[in-house]
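Re: weekly structure request thread

Next one in the queue (194 aa):
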Amino acid sequence: MRAAHPRIAGVILALTDDPQSTTAWATGARGEELLGRRLDGLVDSGVCVLHDRRIPGTKANIDHIAVCPGGVFVVDAKRYRGRPRLQVEGGLFRPRIERLLVGSRDQTRLVGGVHRQVALVRDALAGSGLDVPVRGVLCFVEADWPLVGGSFSVDGVSVVWPKKLADMLVADGALDALAIDAVHRTLAAAFPPA
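Done, posted below.
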């Protein structure tokens, strides 16, 4: 704006709202921060967390990587309004198609993003000779979740709220403290802070 209109840019910027992309980024960052604080509270339960990790060679990042007795959880935090739900189409005579809806909006594209992040984390672990289960999670912060039930899976990606995610992370699993530390260090080196 300042380059295009050097004399009146200050006035234009003062009178206009932030672009939608800036507002969306700030909302998302707040959701990541809220979830990050909650995950940090699980350290005493044997959960090690990496926050806001850069994907090398890209501008993209992974919101949270949690290493716990149950393995590695790649968590994409979202701060959307509306109720997350699974919509299934097809079945017996047609291919089964699963869609992630939040409110009335189709957000299935988010599942593909988590799959890409999970693949990168798996590759980093395999490159270090570590065979550890890796799961993808979409965690909706401040969504309209029902009082009973509500979590589900879309194409292998768990869709949960923060408390449900915490319960998943502190559950028993095969990794001991030494294995958790080794995996944590490997992933910290592979995915630097953003």
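DSSP finds five helices and nine strands in the chain. The chain has one domain: 20-190.
Next request, please.
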